[in-house]
Amino acid sequence: MNAVLEAVRRERDAILDGLFRFLALPSVSALSVHKADVDRTAAFLADALREAGFADARVEPTAGHPLVVASSVVDPLLPTVLFYGHYDVQPVDPEDRWTTPPFAPAIRDGRIYARGASDDKGPVWMHLAVFRAYRDAWGRLPLNVKVLIEGEEEIGSPHLEPYLAAHRHELAADAVLISDTTMLGPDRPAITVGLRGLAALEVRVRGPKSDLHSGLYGGIVHNPLQALVRLLATLHDADGRVAVPGFYDDVRPLPPSERAEIAALAPAADALRAELGVPALFGEAGFTPLERNWARPTLELNGLFGGFQGEGIKTVIPAEAGAKLSARLVPDQDPERILDLVEDHLRRHAPPGVVLDLRRFDAGRPYLAPADHPAIRAAARALEAAFGRPAAFIRMGGSIPIVEPFRRHLGAPIVLMGLGLTTDNIHAPDEHFDLAIFDRGLEAIVRAYAELADALAPAAGQTGADR
Amino acid sequence: MNAVLEAVRRERDAILDGLFRFLALPSVSALSVHKADVDRTAAFLADALREAGFADARVEPTAGHPLVVASSVVDPLLPTVLFYGHYDVQPVDPEDRWTTPPFAPAIRDGRIYARGASDDKGPVWMHLAVFRAYRDAWGRLPLNVKVLIEGEEEIGSPHLEPYLAAHRHELAADAVLISDTTMLGPDRPAITVGLRGLAALEVRVRGPKSDLHSGLYGGIVHNPLQALVRLLATLHDADGRVAVPGFYDDVRPLPPSERAEIAALAPAADALRAELGVPALFGEAGFTPLERNWARPTLELNGLFGGFQGEGIKTVIPAEAGAKLSARLVPDQDPERILDLVEDHLRRHAPPGVVLDLRRFDAGRPYLAPADHPAIRAAARALEAAFGRPAAFIRMGGSIPIVEPFRRHLGAPIVLMGLGLTTDNIHAPDEHFDLAIFDRGLEAIVRAYAELADALAPAAGQTGADR
Are A68 and A46 contacting, i.e. CB atoms less than 8 angstroms apart? Predict the structure, then answer.
């Protein structure tokens, strides 16, 4: 394995150079104006996989953005790992808040700044670099590797699950390895064993058939902005608890043992408050901030729009107003049932004088991993060796909606070996990725494939991990 | 006077042609990107006034957008009318909802379509055309005329009142004539004797120092969008009544006689509902829609912004969210006191975990005219002669914040001889002005100056109106 570690160290500048080219491609999956960029990024990745030794690497079209698929069967008797990642990124607005342009990667203060640097292009590129290093140093990978990289993760992976279902034999693996989660700190590695689910919708309130002058019509019609505000204010209690009836019905309570573990890992409230720049932390009463984020569901507004947004004032009653909402879910909440409950609640509270339009977006189930599975323990050993500190087993407030379908369709354990930090500004301006993690992370990934080869081998002494 | 009426009829195409050039200038006062357009429009108007015989017509700079000022003293013994209008227009967004571009005037279905066609460039241009017709037909106006046309009406006239105060002797007049209000219908002339006041502010709710991922931070901080919604929902009761304590304290009750007059003028609720395209009318309980619009105060949201507004979903907790609000006021509410009350209310209800930023915009007092003043009766006769039907004396839900300062500084009655229709889509896409009103309105304006010369003359038998 030392030869492989030497290879990634030797090629570090070339790896970084390739990552910059990857980051420069504006593969924003949510915006149709970027469709050609998304396609170009998929082709770029397939080329990179071929260069890393995956002769069959290819772009697989879907009804939406394409998948990039590849496999390298070293020996049918060796275990198989499926690596999953995503090459699409979030929109960049507000673009004027970026210090350097989001698609012009730049290094400052020991970090790579670019949209996607942390979520998820940086980690994806590191896996590809490791595949290539194994090929360069050993001529082959230490086990069979299948690769599936999608372009719709940021829009809820609408076409991945059907693909998984249809190709479940072709994708069969002993473990699924994903690097799209976070560590606890730059030198505190972690494996995520719990993810929240996601359910999202858009609410539009339509009033008059066209915008009206608020002097000439104020007092005559219901202002859609006010109707919207009134409606949305019914979604939460004053203490931050979701007020939609039934919302918490299926929430699995946190066992006292896990509450204690979470308390041990929790950052100091003062430090968190200062880091985020808020006057006070806030959320559902009766739970700590980390419990709320890891193990309690939330219902968040993600956008509000309607009327005049420019400088100064415009005395208008707009024809419509709208909001984007998303719920983060925990076991055993079902996204479709939650959306049913939220929609019912909104319809029941629909203000008079306006019409409600509801539209659902992507949904993903929450996930809890078997933390003692050999594959997860193998990744933990690799992280400990690379970072010099034991890996923590954590939950995460975010969602990777596709994780639960991987488990359901492939029946394999999912190893969430995250390399990001919660401070990476993912989904926000100035997203970045730590260069120190880049270096130690490459070592962790090299070690992880070797450890997985070893841990998943049907019989000891047969695998590449022994070399 | 027949010679003057003949002159406007003969020159009709040239007048319309000039109006189109005026409408093509994008004099949007609210947007700094249009500063040069606003200046160009002022210069264009000063030229037009010089061509209409006002040798001293000039652009007067202010700390904001310039005024256009002119005067024509025919004879110091004749009465004097001050004509006021505004050459600035509202922003045009959403621009994609215009059938033809807002600054490319077009005639369709007997209407002139353009931003400002009705509010207020069309009526301003008609007065200028009448001045010119008097000069062409008679060599002079029937009385002394002073002209004051501003470029900041749509942003609350921040620099007009100081100008009025400083130039009150130079602007002294026996009446102020303004055409920036509406008729009751294309053949139902009206003089507005009551205007609502205006008070506006912007609310910003600031939370974390930068946008956050709603998975990684949802449940930890107060989402500024949710804090904003919660805060704004406290401004009204469920029945549409403003819930700010003290808001209605100074409202002068409607006398039963005026309630009866308003009831007689009110459109059928069904027709109004259909015209506006709403499922139901809505507003403060206990009052009819027209009472609410003419004689009751309102507090309206004019804009909401924050977070993601594009296609699809983006799971973000934005760093801030905001809203634009404006109140329409009736006698004897004071705008500054109302803003104090609204700001106190907002501060008292400020949600935890966020910081509130409040910013005041323009404010204008409500106005009630002396409906039996000879100048108002003179204008009513002119309208009746031109439209063949008696002018109604109405209130209006809108505001012309500058009207009340005219009364206060000049001590003259204000004659609101409106030529617009409530259906003109002012402040909205597809603003338009009726061509039939254009023609009959020109006649009404010709007659109005003659009637005013007569009605305001110190002794009968001395004025141009007798010719």
Answer: yes
User: In chain B, which among 126-155 make CB contacts under 8 A with chain A?
Assistant: 154-155
The residues in A 424-463 lying below 8 A from B, measured between CB atoms, are 425-430
B2-195+366-466: what fold?
Answer: Aminopeptidase (3.40.630)
Q: What is the mean pLDDT of residues A422-432?
A: 93
Picking from A419, A379, A457, the residue whose alpha carbon sits closest to that of residue A142 is A457
Strand A67-72 versus strand A58-60 pairing type: antiparallel
Q: Taking CB atoms and an 8 Å cutoff, what residues of chain B touch A354? A: 278-279
CB contact under 8 A, A324 and B313: yes
From A197's Cα to the closest Cα of chain B, the distance in A is 9
Nearest CB partner across the interface for B215, out of A196, A213, A321? A196
Report pLDDT digits (tens) over B166-199.
999 999 999 999 999 999 999 999 999 998 999 9
User: Phi then psi for B49, rounded to 5 degrees?
Assistant: -65, -40
Q: Is the pLDDT of residue A286 over 80?
A: yes
Give residues with Cβ within 8 angstroms of B394, minimum separation 6. B184, B190, B191, B192, B193, B194, B265, B294
The answer to whether B153 touches B68, Cβ cutoff 8 Å, is: no
Tell me how far CA of residue B247 lies from CA of A274, B12, B296, in angstroms.
38, 49, 11
Interior/surface letters B411-446, b for 16+ CB within 10 angstroms, e for the rest: ebbbbbbbbbbbebbbbbbbbbbbeebbbbbbbbbb
Q: What average pLDDT does chain B have?
A: 94
Contact criterion met (CB below 8 Å) for A200 and B313: yes
Place of tokens 């509270």: A349
Q: At what angle do helices A121-138 and A35-51 cross, to 10 degrees?
A: 20
pLDDT in tens, A87-101: 999 999 989 999 999
ipTM over 0.85 threshold = no
**Chain A contact for B190 (CB, 8 A cutoff):** no
Q: How confident is the model at residue B226 (pLDDT cuts 50, 70, 90)?
A: very high
Encoded tokens for A411: 């029946």
The string of DSSP codes covering A447-461 is HHHHHHHHHT-SSTT
Determine the pLDDT at residue B312: 85
Cβ neighbours of A117 in B, within 8 Å: none
Give pLDDT tens digits for A356-382.
999 998 788 898 888 889 999 999 999
Q: Right CATH number for A201-251+297-363 from 3.30.70.360, 3.40.50.1580, 2.60.40.10, 3.30.230.10?
A: 3.30.70.360
Q: How many CB pairs under 8 A join A and B?
A: 363
- The residue ranges of every structural domain in chain B are 2-195+366-466, 198-251+297-358
* Level-2 CATH architecture, domain B198-251+297-358: 2-Layer Sandwich (3.30)
The Cα–Cα gap between A61 and A354 comes to 41
> Which residues, listed in sequence order, are joined to residue B190 by a DSSP beta bridge?
B392
Cis peptide before A26 (omega within 30 of 0): no
Q: What is the pLDDT of residue A459?
A: 57
Strand ranges (E), B257-408: 298-307, 316-317, 320-329, 355-364, 367-368, 392-396
Bond before A120 cis per omega within 30 degrees:
yes
State the average pLDDT over residues B156-167: 93
How many residues in chain A? 467
How many whole angstroms separate alpha carbon A202 and alpha carbon A204? 7
| Mean pLDDT in residue range B333-362 | 96
Which phi and psi (to 5°) does residue B366 adopt? -70, 165
The tokens describing B188, both together, are 């139902």
First vs last C-alpha separation in chain A: 7
In A197-240 the beta strands, taken as DSSP E runs, fall at 197-206, 212-213
Cβ pair B282:A222 closer than 8 A: yes
